[in-house]
Amino acid sequence: MYILQKRIIGLCCAVLTLSVLQAAYAESKEAVKKKETAHKEQVANLTRDNEALSKKVKELEASVLKNKTSVSKEAQGQLEQLKKENASLSKDLAAKTKAANDSDKQLAICKGSVNTLGKDKVSMQTKFDQDLNKVKAQSTTLTQEKAALNSRLQEAMKEKDGLRAQVATLKNAVGLLQKEKAMLETMMAAQPQTLRFSQPRAEVAKSLKNEVHLNLGYAYALKGNTEKAIQEYRTALNFDPQNRDVHYNLGYLYAKQNRFQEAAEEYKKALSGSTKDREVYYNLAILYAVNLKESKLAQMYYSKFLEYSSDTSTPE
User: Fold this and answer.
1) What is the mean pLDDT of residues 75-81?
2) Are residues 263 and 148 in the same domain?
3) Considering only CA atoms, which of 237, 290, 240, 283 is closest in space to residue 264?
4) What is the C-alpha to C-alpha distance for residues 85 and 63, in angstroms, rounded to an integer?
């Protein structure tokens, strides 16, 4: 860009110099013309005067020849004076003619200079136009390149903003994954809470059969007879379908039989009427993390477990 500006400045200086030379030449030409005109007028005047004097001399000579005898010394003196004047006029005429010839030569030189300057002007104008066209073409190219760079810059800025958003999203995701990983590692190392000893609820009419089935279920479970324990707990639910401890124990026993979905359903029933049972949330978190492989639900139940672990109130 600097080189282009330098070329433009050089061209402008050349055009300005050419204009100054043309103006100087015009003034010189006009002065030469005026001098030439004045010289021509003087030559013409001198020529006329010379012709008039020559005519007078001839007339006088003719008169002298005719009247030689009567010409006086005064007339002879006038004749000599006229000859001197004629010689002086001839000399002036020769000087003016020479000056006119010199003026013609100067005019011819000036015309040659004008022609040379004209050719130089045309050449310089052509070169100036060519350089100007190059500058315009380069300017157009630079403008297009600038527009392209601006467009690419805008795209890069958008991509940068998009990448920032993606980085923020990934950071959040990494944070969540780290929390989830920590939670899953904790769950993998954890063991579900053990069985609960079930008692008939106060609000349910006491029944010897109900209590017997509850005790048998607990006893079978302790001995490792899981199937018998499940049967006894199922029979006990006929007397008290809302017994949360029975549903809790069924969830625990189903999990031991790898019946994980049924275990989850029983644990959820154990939450009915009591949303603050920490042990149920704990076992559900382990079940979904280790067995059912549903990390979001595992995280949700584990968060509930932590929330109610800090709550010192007694579960409903």
Assistant:
1) 79
2) no
3) 283
4) 19
Number of structural domains (the chain) is 2
Task: Provide the pLDDT for residue 165.
Answer: 79
Pair 120, 199 in one domain: no
Within 13 Å of residue 286, how many CA atoms lie on the same side as its CB? 20
- Pick 277 or 167 by higher pLDDT: 277
Residue 32 is predicted with a pLDDT of: 73
Question: Is the Cα torsion angle 174, 179, 183, 186 positive or negative in sign?
Answer: positive
What span, in angstroms and rounded, lies between the C-alpha atoms of 229 and 88?
Answer: 164
Residue 171 forms part of a structural domain: no
How many angstroms separate the first and last alpha carbons of the chain?
A: 84
Average pLDDT, the chain: 81
Tokens (6 digits) for 163 = 């990448």
Residue 167 lies in a domain: no
Strand extents, DSSP E, 48-187: none
Separation between Cα atoms, residue 289 and residue 264, nearest integer Å = 12
- Tokens at 113, concatenated: 């200079």
Do residue 225 and residue 286 come from a single domain?
A: yes
Q: Which domain holds residue 303?
A: 190-309
> What pTM value is reported for the model?
0.42
At 314 the pLDDT is 47
Residue finishing a domain among 155, 175, 205: 155
What Å distances lie between residue 253 and 153, 194, 220, 233, 264, CA to CA? Answer: 64, 10, 11, 10, 11
Question: Is residue 220 located within the same domain as residue 266?
Answer: yes
CB atoms within 10 A of CB 128: 18
Q: Are residues 105 and 197 in the same domain?
A: no
Distance CA 174, CA 170 (A): 6
State the CB neighbour count (10 A cutoff) for residue 272.
12
Count CA within 13 A, CB hemisphere, residue 73: 0
Is 315 within the bounds of a domain? no
> What is the DSSP secondary structure assignment for residue 287, as one 8-state letter?
I
**In this structure, is residue 164 part of a structural domain?**
no
Mean pLDDT computed over 41-56: 84
